[in-house]
């Protein structure tokens, strides 16, 4: 049978194994116990590679899971569907028959397996032997007005306005508001085992969309067949063909292996290189691991807010936690989970977060508004075979909107009862919730927060040594120098790695020098530091006027106050006037401030909107904050 799900175009597929009733009163419901099957679209996208081939469009998988909910309301059943079992070596038939689904393999949330034909052909569970001598006790009264002709006419009228799935959704929401009765199985007596019988159409309301038939045949077992007969439903919108987006061609030649020690050191020090261990963040790692692990084991949701200046290991620590949790899930130490990641830096609009989350969960593409509706339905409703979802939201401060609806939903979904969603958010601002979030958003964060402090020079030195992993490429004094320089400025580990990589290049180019030892020394590190902090931008900052330097400082202060990477001239100008008073300088007027801003824009130190916007034009930095601090600190 097909069962209504959050996606109307791809309803759930299941096999009925048993029916039961919730009582005899008019308000109680019928239920069914089912065996679930999974569509290709329901499988995690990163697990499809385990199949080893392209899945068939009409292929489904026998789902083996101990934790999934296998009870459904019969009102959520859409219609019967034909399912055919194929051996693993049998080819798939022509896909022109859209009404037939095919089963070859099973899925247990980790690996694919072979489906036994006896499992597919096993009948429904028989009724208990101690059933009383009555043929059938329906749990709903039979309405005399619900004849097949009446229902067919009403179905025609309803189908022109709403799809069957939407009607069932509205009805089930109304039904769940009633008080449930005591669950009781439908009883089939032994007297009726040699008679064919049918239960008349059961109609609760005039909008009922179909019939429920329960039939029994002459056999050794009681076969229960549930079907809802629906009239024609208008087809959905045409889908975009697969592989419509062009892709980058695959590299024809493999990357070359490092030819010497310096090349090997340069590869290990790259920021994208995954180290064997993550030093200096052991306590933060343990806290995040314990938080996520407890949520996965308890099948609950939660949210953690992680903050810290750039380059302090926030994202790397979370990735290490996820790798360890996935290994534990593969070893059956914890239940399996689905991990997805989004980054605010990679989105042109904050609402694109909905699109990316939906696509990574289901592979489905939709507009931002439609994706938000589907995600709201997915995280609000109880659904079968739902795995815990662990979602990492990096660069959270870039998802800020005027109504703050994107941030609110990201923090609100984990609080839903049936969501089973764990959200880990990362931002550079420690007090982002208090600064830019309204109370309804900040309240969703709770007290689960973590702050990453900047690295000290000893920690930076340990990070570089662990990356090199006993590879002798640097002199000890050279490592101390670069670690102390970066720690005194920002404590950014990524900046430290970049300087070390540039030092290896300088050392390699100076290898012809007879006095060279082949190791990166103090002179190489000093040259790399001078290059890194002696660019044309830094020279321009040092040569700027006092008011222009104060304006740059005011821009950084306002960005940090907002937790964003841009602000209006009016907001920065308020900070500039405050800095003038602190420095004992006469505050300048608005026209002078606009002239200062335009000069900085002409030097490309700032990125400005068109000047006709006046005080409302937006301002962004075109240089890193570290470069500004370095240039002003040197003065």
UniProtKB/TrEMBL annotation:
Localization (cell): Nucleus
Family recorded in the similarity comment: Belongs to the ORC1 family.
- GO terms (BP aspect): DNA replication initiation; mitotic DNA replication checkpoint signaling
Predominant subcellular localization, coarse grouping: nucleus
How the protein assembles, per its UniProt entry?
Component of ORC, a complex composed of at least 6 subunits: ORC1, ORC2, ORC3, ORC4, ORC5 and ORC6. ORC is regulated in a cell-cycle dependent manner. It is sequentially assembled at the exit from anaphase of mitosis and disassembled as cells enter S phase. Interacts with CDC6 and KAT7/HBO1. Interacts with LRWD1 predominantly during the G1 phase and with less affinity during mitosis, when phosphorylated. ORC is composed of six subunits.
Gene Ontology cellular component list: nuclear origin of replication recognition complex
- Any idea what this protein is called? Origin recognition complex subunit 1
* Cited Pfam families: AAA, AAA_lid_10, BAH, WHD_Cdc6
Q: Which InterPro entries does its entry note?
A: AAA+_ATPase, AAA_lid_10, ATPase_AAA_core, BAH_dom, BAH_sf, Cdc6_C, ORC1/CDC6, P-loop_NTPase
Concerning SMART domains, the annotation shows:
AAA, BAH, Cdc6_C
Organism from which the protein derives: Astatotilapia calliptera (Eastern happy)
Q: What keyword terms does UniProt attach to this protein?
A: ATP-binding, DNA replication, DNA-binding, Magnesium, Metal-binding, Nucleotide-binding, Nucleus
Briefly, what is this protein's role? Component of the origin recognition complex (ORC) that binds origins of replication. DNA-binding is ATP-dependent, however specific DNA sequences that define origins of replication have not been identified so far. ORC is required to assemble the pre-replication complex necessary to initiate DNA replication.
Q: What GO molecular function annotations does the UniProt record carry, in alphabetical order?
A: ATP binding; ATP hydrolysis activity; chromatin binding; DNA replication origin binding; metal ion binding
Q: Which residues form the BAH domain?
A: 1-118
């Amino acid at each position: 049978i097909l069962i209504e799900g959050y996606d109307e175009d791809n309803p759930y597929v299941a096999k009925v194994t048993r029916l039961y009733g919730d009582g005899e009163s008019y308000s109680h419901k019928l239920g069914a116990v089912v065996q679930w099957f999974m569509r290709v679209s329901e499988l995690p996208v990163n697990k499809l590679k385990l199949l080893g081939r392209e899945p068939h469009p009409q292929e489904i998988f026998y789902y083996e899971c101990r934790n999934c909910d296998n009870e459904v309301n019969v009102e959520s059943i859409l219609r019967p569907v034909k399912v055919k079992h194929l051996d693993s070596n049998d080819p798939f038939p022509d896909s022109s028959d859209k009404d037939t689904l095919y089963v070859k393999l099973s899925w247990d949330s980790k690996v694919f397996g072979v489906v036994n034909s006896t499992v597919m052909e096993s009948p429904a569970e028989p009724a208990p032997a101690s059933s009383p001598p009555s043929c059938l006790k329906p749990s709903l009264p039979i309405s005399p007005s619900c004849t097949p002709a009446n229902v067919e006419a009403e179905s025609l009228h309803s189908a022109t306005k709403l799809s069957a799935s939407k009607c069932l959704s509205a009805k089930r929401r109304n039904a769940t508001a009633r008080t449930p009765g005591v669950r009781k199985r439908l009883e089939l007596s032994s007297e009726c085992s040699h008679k064919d019988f049918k239960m008349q159409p059961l109609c609760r309301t005039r909008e009922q969309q179909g019939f429920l038939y329960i039939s029994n045949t002459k056999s050794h077992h009681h076969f229960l067949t549930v079907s809802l007969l629906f009239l024609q439903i208008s087809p959905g919108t045409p889908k975009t063909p697969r592989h419509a987006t062009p892709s980058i061609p695959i590299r024809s030649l493999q990357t070359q292996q490092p030819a010497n020690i310096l090349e090997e050191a340069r590869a290990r020090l790259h920021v994208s290189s995954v180290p064997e261990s993550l030093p200096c963040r052991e306590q933060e790692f343990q806290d995040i691991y314990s938080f996520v692990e407890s949520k996965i084991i308890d099948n609950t949701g939660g949210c953690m807010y992680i903050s810290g200046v750039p380059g302090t290991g926030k994202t790397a620590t979370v990735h290490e936690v996820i790798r360890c949790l996935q290994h534990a899930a593969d070893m059956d130490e914890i239940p399996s989970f689905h991990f997805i990641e989004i980054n605010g830096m990679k989105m042109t609009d904050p609402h694109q977060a909905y699109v990316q989350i939906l696509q990574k969960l289901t592979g489905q593409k939709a507009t931002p508004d439609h994706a938000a509706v589907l995600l709201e339905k997915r995280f609000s409703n109880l659904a079968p075979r739902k795995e815990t979802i662990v979602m990492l939201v990096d660069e959270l401060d870039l998802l800020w909107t005027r109504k703050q609806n994107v941030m609110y939903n990201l923090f609100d979904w984990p609080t839903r009862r049936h969501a089973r969603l764990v959200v880990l958010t990362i931002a550079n601002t420690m007090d982002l919730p208090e600064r830019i979030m309204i109370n309804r958003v900040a309240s969703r964060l709770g007290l689960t927060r973590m702050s990453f402090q900047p690295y000290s020079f000893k920690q930076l030195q340990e990070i570089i040594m662990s990356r090199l992993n006993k590879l002798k490429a640097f002199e000890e004094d050279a490592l101390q120098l670069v670690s102390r320089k970066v720690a005194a400025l920002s404590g950014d580990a990524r900046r430290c790695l970049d300087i070390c990589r540039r030092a290896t290049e300088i050392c390699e180019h100076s290898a012809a020098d007879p006095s060279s030892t082949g190791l990166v020394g103090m002179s190489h590190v000093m040259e790399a530091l001078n290059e890194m902090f002696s660019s044309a931008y830094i020279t321009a900052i040092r040569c700027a006027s006092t008011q222009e330097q104060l304006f740059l400082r005011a821009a950084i202060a306002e960005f940090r106050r907002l937790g964003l990477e841009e602000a209006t001239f009016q907001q920065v100008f308020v900070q500039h006037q405050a800095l003038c008073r602190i420095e004992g300088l006469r505050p300048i007027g608005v026209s002078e401030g606009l002239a200062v801003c335009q000069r900085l824009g002409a030097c490309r130190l700032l990125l400005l909107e068109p000047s006709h916007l006046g005080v409302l034009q937006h301002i962004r930095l075109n240089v890193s904050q570290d470069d500004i601090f370095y240039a002003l600190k040197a003065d």
